[in-house]
Amino acid sequence: MKKESPLFWPAYLKGDILFVLDETLVPKQLKYVKVRNIDEAVAVICEMKTRAFGQFLVVLSTFLLEFNRQPQLNGEELLEKIRNVAHALNHSRPTFPFSEVTSVVVHWAHGALDAGQDVRAIVIKNVNGYLQGIRHRRLDRVAKIAANIKDGDSVLTHCNVSGELAMAAAICREQKKDVQFYCTETRPYFQGAKLTYWELKQMGADVTLVADNAIATLMADKMVNKVIVGSDRNCANGDFANKIGTYQIAVLANEFKVPMLVLTQPSQKIKSGADIPVEIRDESELLQFNGRKVFSSKVKGLYPGFDVVPHHYVRKEIAIDVH
Amino acid sequence: MKKESPLFWPAYLKGDILFVLDETLVPKQLKYVKVRNIDEAVAVICEMKTRAFGQFLVVLSTFLLEFNRQPQLNGEELLEKIRNVAHALNHSRPTFPFSEVTSVVVHWAHGALDAGQDVRAIVIKNVNGYLQGIRHRRLDRVAKIAANIKDGDSVLTHCNVSGELAMAAAICREQKKDVQFYCTETRPYFQGAKLTYWELKQMGADVTLVADNAIATLMADKMVNKVIVGSDRNCANGDFANKIGTYQIAVLANEFKVPMLVLTQPSQKIKSGADIPVEIRDESELLQFNGRKVFSSKVKGLYPGFDVVPHHYVRKEIAIDVH
Predict the structure, then answer these.
(1) Residue B17, strand partner residues
(2) For this structure, is A232 an active site residue?
(3) Which pLDDT band holds residue A122 (cuts at 50, 70, 90)?
(4) Which of A27, A78, A181, B146 could form a disulfide with B168 if both were Cys (CB 3.0 to 4.6 A apart)?
């Protein structure tokens, strides 16, 4: 049985190339897109080949990529380069808090330059240290998720939480807990059907796929007793943004008194959900299935990519420790 | 502009053949399946080529079909034939109340036989009269739906209500009401994307397709101010069964204070929702898209076909008059 899902760490740098797992092809293929520069990094984000945590890895790694490509730059030129890369990344998609990440890198470069240090060495060291720190904290959160799942639980999840739930399921299995999972299809992109079902299964979990429409009946019939979902952005007041469909699951969990646990990364930068701009994605994506058009091109669709969920629906946060 | 949607009357008898609109092919093709006998009638129902009201038409018309095929039967043989046809229809699918319809026909035949009347003539006359009565009452309900839609309304619907909402939309348009419609995709079968969107568009309505996951956000953002859905079975206490996903829309409508209107056919035969058996359809249907398999055959799915919605979520019933 595997212990680490490919979705847990879906992008890694090898020499001058960033290998990014193409999540749109999973589970049919495990294929990595090669990203060589900032333009290709923005493309892989815009095309949603990588999502959520994968985007985070791409953003951080892109600085290293661009550094490797231009070994001749001096400190000031490196700072300028970092600012340009940060700007391009920040404007690639509205929902993910890219600027929270990129501003840290800009800050490091600025500090190193001001202190007369080697900008290149400092930034590379800090980015790598940051990535390793995140890795350890995510593994900690996997353990916390497992601790929150009890013997006999039946857990509903939505969209995909990048390996963490699947790895928690593997821990539960080692601990001989009898746990069932239900995962939604997660239209329009089917992340649940394609990613979550697959990785839970890979980890040996007992998982059942349901339509996004089946949640009320599942809860009314007491077939699930816990909801665990991820979050793409967190607010100071506990509101959070996550894949479209999360809001209604939160309302239903509240109505049927099913505890809803949200995997968070606490942040004080956004005050409340009202301050999160919701990304309206192109309607054509609603009308495609695995990249092929399935409805008439004359169909008018509306596709808000994310929900902003008010905090009062959340029973418990399972947070990544913030140092 | 068309005034009657093909979905409003999706099955009609012509000589010895019942022509049943294959709703699985709409909107790509308007094709009618030829049904010649009870076995073909059961098949067309089981394969869900016709739904809800179409099933009702198929059930009634199948008695006429079988009568036409066997002109030599006497009164007692006809009653026996009717009982056999009723039995086969009653056991074709659990959710639709076939026995409520078939028992009426058995009753007519029985009464005619007891009274020494011409069983064949009586049953044919009554079935035809019944169908015409239903047609008039449905047209009445279309007018009632239109009267419940106000200028400026933005109406969310789910699944498909067999022509009635689309025809009401046409009336609203004639009355110069400015109305927007949102229809859900309605996974797993996509009745909303395939049937409802198409027929609302045919009637000249302003309609937008949304994923089933987008309802909470639509309501939270006040983009819809009314929900109108159909019902497949109605209970004496107001509970009703309808396509999976209706229950969660009802909970959300309640949470966001959006009035929910349900098209009903009042019945005292079922006391409450607890008495409705919910059909669990084959999981393979969840894993297909337009008849082609899209997920691995090893995926375990659960596909409850219908929701049973408690009456307290319903703001108003728009009923078919019962005489």
Answers:
(1) B14
(2) yes
(3) very high
(4) B146
Domain that holds residue A90: 6-137
Taking residues A189-203, report their average pLDDT. Answer: 91
The residue-averaged pLDDT of A147-154 equals 98
Last residue of a domain, one of B137, B159, B188: B137
Chain B: closest CA distance from residue A142 (Å) = 25
How distant is the alpha carbon of residue B92 from its chain centre? 16
CA–CA gap between residue A238 and residue B30 (Å, rounded): 51
Between vectors from CA B262 to CA B260 and to CA B265, what angle results, nearest 5°? 160
Does position B59 have pLDDT exceeding 70, yes or no? yes
pLDDT in tens, B231-247: 988 999 999 999 999 99
The pTM score is 0.88
CATH number of the domain encompassing residue B73: 1.20.120.420
**For chains A and B, what is the number of CB pairs under 8 angstroms?**
140
In chain A, the N- to C-terminal Cα span, in Å, equals: 33
- Nearest-by-CA chain B residue for A248: B216
pLDDT, position B292:
66
**Same domain flag for A98 and A243:** no
| Chain B residue numbers touching A185 (CB-CB < 8 A) | 187, 286
Residue of A157, A158, A217 to mutate, interface with B, max B Cβ within 10 Å: A217
Kindly give, in sequence order, each residue whose CB lies less than 8 Å from that of residue A110, ignoring residues fewer than 6 positions away.
A79
State the catalytic residue, choosing from A232, A239, A275, A321.
A232
Q: What is the pLDDT of residues B161-218, one digit of tens each?
A: 989 999 999 999 999 999 999 999 999 888 898 899 999 999 999 999 999 999 999 9
Answer yes or no: are the C-beta atoms of A156 and A249 closer than 8 Å: yes
- Residues of chain B with Cβ-Cβ distance to A301 below 8 Å are 208-210
